[in-house]
Amino acid sequence: MQSTKLAIAIPTFERAEILLENILSIIPQLEEHSIPLFISDNSSDNLTEQIVNKLNKQYKFIFYFKNRTDLGHDKNSFYVVQLPEADHVWLLGDSFSIEPNGIKEVLDLIDTHKPEIISVNAANRSLDEKSGFYTDHNTVLDKFGWHLTLTGATIYSKKVISTIGQVKPELFKNFPQLSLMFKYLSKDCSFYWLNRKVINSAPKKGYWVKTMFSIFIDDWSNAIRNLPSSYRDSVKEKVIIEHSLRSNIFGFKALLKARIFDAYNYNLYKKYGDELSFHSPLNKFTLMLISIFPRFILKIILFLQQTYQALKL
After folding, report:
1. Is pLDDT at 259 greater than 70 in this prediction?
2. Residues paired with 98 in a beta bridge
3. Model-level pTM?
4. How far apart are CA 230 and CA 234, in angstroms?
5. What is the rounded CA–CA span in Å between residue 136 and residue 139?
6. Which helix (H) or strand (E) holds 142?
7. How far is Cα 124 from Cα 199, in angstroms, rounded to an integer?
8. Are strands 96-98 and 191-201 parallel, antiparallel or unpaired?
9. Which candidate, 187, 259, 176, places its Cα nearest to that of 219?
């Protein structure tokens, strides 16, 4: 029989191949503990459905739901996390895999500590905090707020999920999970941090690349500032900047890549220049220079770099 202690829920959108690779990597863990896996698909094609049909022959506790219309990231995340009837649900991004024994560790934590919310560390994240139980909601925001943007870093209890109806998603665009967890924690801070890097993301082009400024400056800042008033303003402002600096999303290499795709240009520099100087480790002159640097030169450099790497192989 399938487990009622933990389920995994994945919202997905046209990433069939990445999803297949990641599910195949975690099936041994799912089988070992009879963990049910729920998938809610926003895709316009049938590739994901075809893949899941094949996977069902290998593991029977995979449950697939095809949305008639694209719900969008936020609504799909909340939809799929409410599908399981398990005591805890791990909301996992479609590009994430779980490291060996990761599921067992989470199950053990549920048995031992019974937290309402569990968060895990991830590969390539600049974060090292001691594993343990946290009972102060401002401390959780201060230490982990920037990291909890990851769809895959958090496991929610049924009790937390039952409060989704109290969330105002329009105030937390692109980061609905922040409202869910931090509103709950402000009233009942039952949070366990697992410092091991349990999740790992496959290389991908994020859906947010061409809107990275509006998402990770505008939407991100609004989401944090709309958290309950019991969270200190000084902590909120710290966390807003900390995400940009610790994820390096507006670092030198990231902005050069964005420039190649015209996701960063002089118009965006004029619009975000003042704020970007706080969100980026670069000075304003460098930020401006990147915004006007000829894209064709960067494309040639990228092509030569990729050719060189291919020849080395």
Report:
1. yes
2. 199
3. 0.91
4. 12
5. 5
6. helix 137-144
7. 10
8. antiparallel
9. 176
